[in-house]
Amino acid sequence: MSASDTKEAYSGARKGEDATFEDVWDTPKGVRRLSSVSHRVVGRRFIYTGFVFFLIAGVLALMVRTQLIVPGNTFLDLETYSQVFTMHGTLMMFLFAIPILEGFAVYLIPLMLGARDLIFPRLGQFGYYCYLFGGIIVLSSFLFDAAPDGGWFMYVPLSTQAYSPGLSADFWLIGITFAEIASVTAAVELITAILCARAPGMSLAKMPVFAWYILITAFMIAIGFPPLIIGSILLEAERLLGLPFFDPVLGGDPLLWQHLFWLFGHPEVYIIFLPAAGMVATMLPTFVGKPLFGYGFAVAAVVSMGFISFGLWAHHMFATGLPILSLSLFSAASTMVAVPTAIQVFCFIATLASGRPKLTTPMLFILGFLSIFVLGGLTGVMLASVPFNFQAHDSYFVVAHLHYVLIGGMVFPLIGAFYYWAPHFTGRMMSERLGRWVFGLMFVGFNTTFLLMHLTGLRGMPRRVATYAEGLGWDRLNMLSSIGSYILAAGIALFVFDFFRSRRHGPPAPRNPWGAGTLEWLYPPVAPGFNFHAIPHVESREPLWDQPHLLENEAHEVDGVMRGIRDGRRETLGCDPVSGAPLYVLRLPHPTWLPMIAAAGLAVLFGAMLASAYWLCAVGAAIALVALTLWAWEPSDSGVTRDAGMGYELPVNVVDRRSHMHVALVGTMLVLMALFASLIFGLLYLWNIRPESAETLSRPDILPAGFAVVLGLAVALFGQLTRRAAVSDRFIGATLLSLATAMSALLSVAALGISLLPIDPWDSALGATLWAIGGFVAFVLAVLAYWSLFNAARRVSRRVGPGQSMPDFNLATFAKGTGLMVAVSGAFFIVGAMGGVG
Amino acid sequence: MESTLGTFGSQDTSSIAGQAAGETLWLTIGMSVAGALIFALVMVFVALAWRGRGGARTWWIVGGGVVFPVVVIGALFVVSTFVLKSVAGPRAAPHVIEVTGKQFWWNVIHDPDGRAIRDANEVVLPLGEPVEIRLKSSDVIHSFWIPSIAGKMDMIPGRVNTLTVTATREGRFRGQCAEFCGLAHPLMAFEAVVIPPDEYAAFLADLDGEARDAVTPQERRGAEVFQSSGCIACHRVAGISDTRIGPDLTRVGQRAALGAGMWDMNTGNLAGWIADVSEMKPGAEMPSYNQLSGPDLRALVAWLESLT
Amino acid sequence: MSGTHRIGRLLALVVGFVAGLAVCVIVAVWALARPGADPVTTAAYTFVDRASEYWDSVFPDKDDAAPDWNALAFEVAGGDPETGARLIAEYGCGACHTIPGIARARGRVGPNLTGFRDQAYIAGVLPNRPGDLVDWLQSPPRHAPETVMPDMGISEAEADDMAAYLYTLEGR
């Protein structure tokens, strides 16, 4: 690629000058590139892989449209059609939309915030491989002729063993749950990176708005994905083990699945929309030449959207026979989301008015986004009206609405973002002329396809039908929709062509080609493996506009903290989460294969589960456990201080509440709590909906349950004591207390198990749910015990120096959270035992 | 509606034949017009902003982003709550019909609390009188939807949902399952027939009782074939068999459609159905009966058609 | 840019816009109309009819070649293939036969009627001639007592139309 000479010219990496710095940050070559942990490599992998899934899912969509082009078509048979539309939805939602946006976030966030990498680079690599292997598992179902065919929301009982025998549903449940690990790890990683690794001076209020969008999205993923993960595990347990969570005969309820699914599914829509809106909010100011108008309003809108999105899941279930009062409440909540959405739209419009907008290709896509998304939002408000929803639900009106929101709200900004950030990927500019054609084809094709679908739906055509009768008034609308879909596809194809064409023939991209204000354009786009030689002080949200000296010199000469490297290690700056003041030097890991091996171990585990080779499951789990242990088994870096330049004398990896490790742990606890809460939700829901089945349930044993609670509290107490001992460097005390923590955790597991023994989980859904809660808490306790023993082992093997008490510090927090879970579940067991259940 | 496939009733939310569908249509039209106006307004605003040149104001965001949506959705909420109460609010209904969704057809019981008259794939409604439709499922989730008469309601295993409808126009109206329920989901339709109340009473009285006797020799032969060839293992014909696995055939010849709203009921389709059901309705559990001799099959068809 | 240039561009823009709008409106009317009550298709047919009338009046058909006896042999007196196609769909023939040009006619119970015109016998019992086919359609069991094909109560006029359609099916 001849872009290499531009790289020479612009990178500012003068040979020899800072050679060690570049060597340390260099991405490994050849096969070893797979072991890279750099956010640039991992982010791009997410993006490219996501785009491949997008193209596959797009081909499936064309197959759907081809089948529906005339009534009674026989292009696909019923089974293939069901597989095709199920996989279209599944791939688009789980393997394209979220991962590709995470890819952009992983790539852009450190560059925008002035960090040299994400804080947990290995977690990024691990997540990527989970996503890749999970996606391959889902896709491979086509090879075994067992592609999922129950629709992307997998409603029970259709997806249970009785109505979906064979492996198709298992492929979905296992593959998607595996791939979701990537979303959750990326969420924790992004929360931490945004809060803990920003350029000096970048307070939360000075963060680029994209970071706000991603921060909120990441929190939503952390809370929104757990209900689906729990739902998938319960459903897989019902399929594999026959536990009756959703079986109405044994006190379960098919609607429990719908509640769990949409508790995830509705936030999911905003999880997809928000990052894309963040891209719009980033690109728009560049082409207007003025900062985003109403930054504060936009941030407030995004935050409130995050909250509201968890309160309106039931509007997907208006036709399930909910009581009229809940219908009204959920209807009101659903319309309310129009407010933050409208605020954002008007922020964008006001930004347009505040300068002189330039009609570039990304700008065209932004205008396309505005028009399509506004229309989709309006039909969304219509759907929130219950009586209208009774008619439109599960009809083509909904299909039209969701594509308006998702394609308008996500795909249009995404293609615009490709045109905007392409220099980062190829070093060259994409064609403005072809870009206009891409936009024109996509816009015309999209509206032809989906505008008409509103009418098709109102004319009574239900969704997910492989064929329809002639003469019901749907024939011609469907034909036009299909023609429109081909035009849309032509637009996407032209985009792909332009991307590959520009890799070779596009004009080389100069430094900051669009005249943007955010830090990712500080260096020439085809930078080497590192981000910043020195991390500049940031004084505004658009540093490249307000601090002209940043662009006056060559990028590597820009002054900042932490110039070069120390100790031959990759480092970046850790900051105070709120003020952005430099707090510590954050040591980062170097390329490693361990996360990939761990992900491969999980792939073996899940693949073997599909093949019912349970001994192989154990092997996979062992591989993953060993890899994860080795991953964690490394010397601590904390306990020393270093001169960071510009007058900062900073500790390495501070041991503190503000430490990135602790922030990440809190994020992880958030995920665990959301998982736990989903199970508790399930218990309370079933208890409420089928009180009669609680009466026949045998009671948990009260005494062991009480013991479990006491032991849970002991876990928290010992964890806290370990932390105190460790912080004051009392080695023997800390080791012994670690062992005590592990011991009480294991005893607590035993107590929970004994207390549940009288209950037969195969007998009733409530019993199965109690066992599921016990199992989940036991799993968390086991992790805790393993971690305590691990800490003790590290201490005994002299790996821990004075002041290196971060693992114990974190464990204490984890132990407190776990203690809370044990106490809550123990309390439920006791209430059940005392006859409260029933 | 005329169609080359036959004479299906209309399946269209704007071809009104029910009180709920009528009121919802006004809501739909109102919201669509308002939505189009708001959309146009926003686009005009975008165009003006494009030429704005430095004229952004904070009150745009407050006005357009908060005040305006709150007013609009507030008004919408009030209106749609009124419509909701009128469409789905509790009402006394003099008639009850129980419909059970099955993969991939509908089991219908008129007057389930009283005489429990069984039928399949066709719902008969009296004009202008509220009917409570009890919706159940015996396997997976289905959704009961007659667009011209009322909005949809899910049929969920383990639950009984009710939908109270009032038909406002005589005629045949097509309904279809609206929740994906398996491979043959697109082939799971039915017909709603609206008749005047006096005819409805007569219809119920007529239904009550055994199937019509075979008259001609061919019909008698058909009845024998029905009993000797295994049909009675699944199908009920009152007075002859009482198994309830497949659709009730007591008055199959009177229905307008065959195969859950998929084909016109006529000699040709019925013969083809018995001989090769797997082609006409993939996913149906009924086996194809191509072991019957020509005359036997023709006799069976003739007898079934005579069951009115 | 010169004034005429600008006017030309403006004109092109207006013409393009109006033409685009017209296309959209026509397509929308076509898409939304119920088949059978569709002004666009009706207008298109009327236009084609008028044009061909005009064409015939300008270039009258002077070809007086010998009649095609083979074609005439399959002519059904009074049969209208279009009506026949509709009747074939209505009577449910497709339940048992695969018939080209008839929606959902993919039956596998009886013979595939693709290229029916070239078939020598009807059901192996009657010569495949218009008169016999019309007879057969009205009551198959009368000609073949063991056949599974039922008497569907088709009238003679209807059978004429259906036969006319069946003889349009050429070449397998």
Give me a quick take on this structure.
The complex is a heterotrimer of chains A (838), B (308) and C (172). Chain A is mainly alpha-helical.
Tell me what you see in this structure.
The complex is a heterotrimer of chains A (838), B (308) and C (172). Chain A has 838 residues and is an all-alpha fold. Helices cover 66% and strands 3% of the residues of chain A. The N and C termini of chain A lie far apart (71 Å). The model of chain A is unreliable at 1-17 (pLDDT under 50). By secondary structure, chain B is an alpha+beta fold. Chain B has helices at residues 19-50, 58-88, 197-207, 217-228, 267-275, 277-280, 294-306; strands at residues 95-102, 105-110, 117-120, 122-126, 130-137, 142-146, 150-155, 161-166, 171-177, 189-195, 236-237, 241-242, 257-258, 263-264. The longest helix of chain B has 32 residues, at 19-50. Chain B starts with 18 loop residues before the first helix and ends with a helix. Chain C contains seven helices and two strands. Chain C has helices at 3-32, 39-58, 69-73, 81-90, 130-138, 140-143, 156-166, and strands at residues 121-122, 126-127. In chain C, strands 1-2 form a two-stranded antiparallel sheet. The longest helix of chain C has 30 residues, at 3-32. Chain C is elongated. Chain C starts with a helix and ends in a 6-residue tail after the last helix. The interface between A and B is large, with 83 and 92 residues.
Largest two-chain interface? A-B, 83 and 92 residues
State Rg of chain B. Answer: 25 Å
The first-to-last residue Cα distance of chain A is 71 Å
Q: Specify the biggest β-sheet of chain A.
A: 2 strands, antiparallel
State the order of secondary-structure elements of chain B, H for helix, E for strand. Answer: HHEEEEEEEEEEHHEEEEHHH
N- to C-terminal separation of chain B? Answer: 24 Å
How helix-rich are the residues of chain B, as a percent range? 25-40%
**Secondary-structure element sequence of chain A?**
HHHHHHHHHHHHHHHHHHEEHHEEHHHHHH
The Rg value of chain A, from CA coordinates, equals 27 Å
Mean pLDDT of chain B: 90
How many helices of chain A in DSSP terms? 26
Q: Main sheet of chain B: which strands, in order across?
A: 3-2-1-5-8
Pick out its properties.
heterotrimer, B: alpha+beta, five-stranded mixed beta sheet, 14 strands, disordered N terminus, C: 172 residues, mainly alpha, two-stranded antiparallel ribbon, elongated
